[in-house]
Amino acid sequence: MGTGRTCIAGRDFSPRGNSDRDQSPDCGENSEQATKIAHYYYENINPTTRAEFQAVKEKIASQTKARTDFENTIPATLIMEDMSEPREAFVLKRGEYDKPGEKVERGVPAVFPPLPEGTPVNRLGLAKWLVDPANPLTSV
């Protein structure tokens, strides 16, 4: 009291202009709560720093909106990931979906080299196999 200082939760918020005002021994110990209060004060109350924070907040909001607008222009597909348990697949008689024939498994046709060991037997594995430099179908 009587020092003209404003201490909140151990932090000095007096407009003295000293570089050591944030950790003044007269205001008590520094803590996590005091740091949060100081951040709130500088971001929302202090007239000098509030304007700077407002400009940064507006720039962040503008960039976030631009990113969201861009992401909304990217077309989505119905297939975003493989199912955990793949559906059974069949050769269709005469191509008719309601006349399944012989059951088939995932893989490459027998006339081609097999997928490398450890490669997943899915679309990603097939894509990696197709562009692999060791694949005789695509090697130069």
Q: Which oligomeric form is depicted?
A: single chain
SSE succession: EEHHEEH
Q: How can the largest sheet be summarized?
A: 2 strands, antiparallel
Shape: elongated
Q: Alpha-carbon distance between the termini?
A: 84 Å
- Uncertain segments of ≥5 residues (pLDDT<50)? 17-24
Average of pLDDT: 79
What's the total number of strands?
4
Description:
- The strands form 2 sheets. The protein has a two-stranded antiparallel sheet with strand order 1-2.
- The chain is an alpha+beta fold and 140 residues long.
- It is 35% helix and 9% strand.
- β3 and β4 (100-104) form a beta hairpin.
- The chain starts with 6 loop residues before the first strand and ends in a 9-residue tail after the last helix.
- The longest helix has 27 residues, at 47-73.
- The model is unreliable at 17-24 (pLDDT under 50).
Condensed summary:
The chain has 140 residues and is an alpha+beta fold.
Based on the model shown, name its key terms.
140 residues, two-stranded antiparallel ribbon
How is the topology of this model organized?
Blueprint (H helix, E strand, L loop, with lengths): L6 E2 L2 E2 L19 H13 L2 H27 L15 E4 L7 E5 L18 H9 L9
Antiparallel strand pairs: 1-2, 3-4
